[in-house]
Automatic annotation (TrEMBL):
This is Bifunctional oligoribonuclease/PAP phosphatase NrnA. It comes from Companilactobacillus keshanensis. One of its GO terms (molecular function) is 3'(2'),5'-bisphosphate nucleotidase activity. It holds the Pfam family DHH. Residues 228-310 form the DHHA1 domain. The keyword Endoplasmic reticulum does not apply. Keywords: Hydrolase. The lineage of its organism: Bacteria, Bacillati, Bacillota, Bacilli, Lactobacillales.
Length: 317
């Protein structure tokens, strides 16, 4: 595992740096990517710093991407943030640069890259970027960068509600607040949903299957999304909704994709669910993971496994 100092020295060697993150980005992916880019641009104004990937329609208020051409990768340093494995990098050209660095807080199941820094105790990749900045006299935490990094931490901690929030997380967030960032504005944006998404929450509770063990499942299919005039990205806004029920310990949400397969969102209040995700073309954190299912039969298989996981967890309490 590389140290921050090693990463800074590598950054200094390259005139062109491309920063990537995972597909279907969340605030932490975008915040860590943009926060790092802004910091490096201030520290090294003569370098070309680009951020790449597909734009997330619902998060354009937070960050939009640069147009990164094939030629840009030639001789470039490529850095990925918040991306556990290479299939999830939101640019297939990630390996076409001269050197690759991985910075992440997910379990290090794929130790890719020429250098890597992984801290699974960090609440978010944005927290790691803040620590990277604090570790170096070459880097300065600016108000603009702090805005994006705060958004990343707020996103991954559920506004400091999830167990990954630590004393250090709060200290880092405090540094951001000391720069007078618009924290209330970020929190409000995180809390906003459309009328269609609000209706989806109601539909989800109507459709939610809750086993006596405390495992739950909801399926958001094309028919429901068409009925409410929402897309897959907007459907992701209700991922945390089942957790508001006191009798739900872990849950699975299956969102139908354009090709008929399903994107699986797994969340938990205690039972470890990332091993289940790994069995189905996914992975992630012990209490928050993603996976894929080819059809409803596979979704049902996953739900049965989730019921067993929760049942075993409660027996061991």
């Amino acid at each position: 595992m590389n140290k921050f100092a090693d990463i800074i020295e590598t950054i200094k060697k390259y005139d062109k740096i491309i920063i990537l993150r995972h597909q279907n980005p969340d605030p932490d992916a975008l915040g860590s990517q943009k926060g790092l880019a802004l910091t490096l641009q201030v520290a090294f104004p003569d370098k070309t710093i680009l951020i790449g990937g597909q734009n997330a329609e619902g998060l354009k208020w937070l960050s939009t991407m640069d147009h990164v051409k094939n030629d840009d990768f030639k001789g470039a340093l490529v850095i990925t943030t918040d991306t556990a494995n290479t299939p999830r990098v939101d640019d297939d050209r990630y390996d076409q640069g001269d050197f690759l660095i991985k910075i992440d807080h997910h379990p290090n199941d794929e130790a890719y890259g020429d250098q890597l820094y992984v801290n699974t105790d960090a609440s978010s990749s944005s927290e790691i970027i803040a620590d990277l900045i604090a570790s170096s006299s070459d880097l300065t935490l600016t108000k603009e960068a702090a805005y994006y990094l705060y958004a990343g931490i707020v996103g991954d901690t559920g506004r400091f509600m999830y167990p990954a929030t630590t004393e250090h997380t709060m200290c880092v967030a405090g540094r951001f607040l000391s720069l007078d960032i618009d924290a209330p504005g970020i929190n409000q944006k995180m809390n906003e949903i459309t009328l269609q998404q609000a209706k989806l929450q109601g539909e989800l509770f109507d459709r939610l299957k809750v086993d006596e063990s405390g495992a739950a499942m909801a399926i958001i299919d094309d028919d429901l999304m068409n009925k409410l005039d929402i897309n897959q990205e907007q459907a992701n806004s209700v991922v945390s909704t089942p957790g508001r029920l006191g009798n739900v310990f872990a849950w699975l949400e299956a969102v139908q994709k354009y090709d008929g397969t399903y994107r699986i969102h797994l969340r938990s209040k205690g039972p470890v669910i990332n091993e289940l995700a790994k069995e189905h073309d996914g992975g992630g954190h012990p209490l928050a993971s993603g996976a894929n299912a080819k059809d409803l039969e596979e979704v049902d298989q996953m739900y049965k496994k989730l019921i067993k996981i929760v049942t075993d967890f409660k027996k061991g309490e």
